[in-house]
Each structure stands twice: as C-alpha cells, then as structure tokens.
Amino acid sequence: MEVHHHPHVEKKKFKEYFLEFLMIFLAVTMGFFAETIRENITEHRHAREFALLLLKDVEQDTVQLNSYRQYFSYVADNIDTLIQLLANNDPKDITTGKLYWYGLFGGARRSFVPNDETFQQMKSSGSLRYFGQKIASAAAKYDRFCRLMQSYEQIQQNIYAEVRKLRAQIFIVSYNDRANNIFQKYFKSWGNFDFGPIDSFMKTNPPVLSYDKTLFNEYIELVRSRFIRGYNVGGSDSLLHQASVLISELKTEYRLEDK
User: Fold this and answer.
1) Does pTM surpass 0.85?
2) Nearest by Cα to 47 from 133, 141, 142, 128
3) Which residues, at least 6 apart from 116, have a Cβ–Cβ distance to it below 8 Å?
4) pLDDT (tens digit, 9 = 90+) per residue, 223-254?
5) What pLDDT, on the 0 to 100 scale, is given for residue 259?
6) Inter-CA distances, 32 with 23, 26, 169, Å
7) Which of 84, 88, 134, 169 lies 20 to 30 Å from 259 when distance is taken between CA atoms?
8) pLDDT tens digits for range 76-131
9) Three-state DSSP class for residue 76
10) CA 149 centroid distance within chain
11) Distance CA 97, CA 95 (A)
C-alpha cells in the first residue's frame, strides 16, 4: 500500500497578516491623500487665475464708476439750481441762457456697464466654489448691486423719452446743442471747468419756445422723477464701497498686491 504525503503548508501568523493589511491600508491612504492634495493644488491654481481676472474686471469698474459718479454729481448740482431758479422766479424773469444751461441736464444720460464676464462665467460653471465663502459672498453682493444699478437706469430710461419730448416744447434744439457743445468742449476734467465760455453763454438771451409755467413745472417733475433721491450718486457710492471690499479680499487671499 502506498502512503501519500501531503505537502506541509505553513500558516502565517496574525502579525504577518496585520502587517500586510497595514501596508495595503497605508498605500491606499497615501494615494487618497496625494490625490486630495493634487486636487487642492489644482483648485487653488484655478481660484487664483479667476481671482486675477475678477480683480481686473472690478478695478476697471471702479474707474468707470468714479467718472459716472462725478458726472451725476455735477448733473444733480445743476438740476438743483434749475429747481431753485424756477421755484423763486417767473421763467420770464430768468436769463434764458441760464434756462438753457441748467435745463440741459434734465436730459443727462450715462450708463454703467459692469465688466462681469468673469463672475458670470464662474457662476454658470459652478466655479465660485473655488473661492472661500467670504470672497464668494462679496462677489455675489457686488454683482447684486450692479444689477440694482442697471434696473434703476432702466427706470430712468423709461422716463428719458418723456423728458426729451417735453424739453422740445420749451427749448429750441439748436441752442440746446450749443449749450451741450460748450459742456463737452470745456469740461476737460471733472471739477476743472473753464467757466469763461459757460458764464458767457448764461448771460445771453436766446429765444425759447414757451414760458408756460405748467410746461416748466411738468419738466421739473419729470426730471425729479428721473433722479429721485440721487440714486445715480448713491448707487455708485454703494458699488464703489463693495468693489473696495471685494478688491481687498481678493488681494489679501491670493496675494495680488503686486499684480
């Protein structure tokens, strides 16, 4: 009878199994951490790239907003003067050069168009998640203020056509154009008028189409409706403040001071 010998299989000790498990666990864990670090580095790089673009957009907005604010501050001053002139005087007693000059600004128009391509791209693609909550909130608030400004401008635009129609019943277009040309030519920089030509024009007495107090009153009310509460100035102040907050956050978080 043959005797069959079974090969002897040496059983691994628990310590060896544990070491094998530990090595596999460490390899998987290290791989996970490496992938997480890689993703974090990639996201931070993307965030910084977006931050640079957003910073450039908002800085360009502030240049536009400062000019916008200065323009409407000057407009508001002239409208206030027109309101006071007509409140205290009969139109027939006012030098018509003054009526043309101050009346010109009832038709003032300028639009603020934000450079929002970067923000809208990030918003639509979900890339705002690259930013921390603080910056994302600041950017969203700034965008909301931009939309409010544009909504108010649309309200003004709806009244603008009515203002022009009524102004055409009081003032002769050619003299309006003359006043506007003086404004465009001599307003070389905000707050730095050459007042000579302006003063000379306001001393003249070009003809007007009507001295009707009702027409003047309607014109004033329409103009007041366009610029109620000085929102062009107040709105631009709010936007400039929020732009400053966002710019500061971006520069601090991504060290963009020298960019």
Assistant:
1) no
2) 128
3) 57, 143, 146
4) 988 887 678 899 999 999 999 999 999 999 98
5) 47
6) 14, 10, 76
7) 134
8) 999 999 999 999 999 999 999 999 999 999 999 999 999 999 999 999 998 898 89
9) helix
10) 8
11) 5
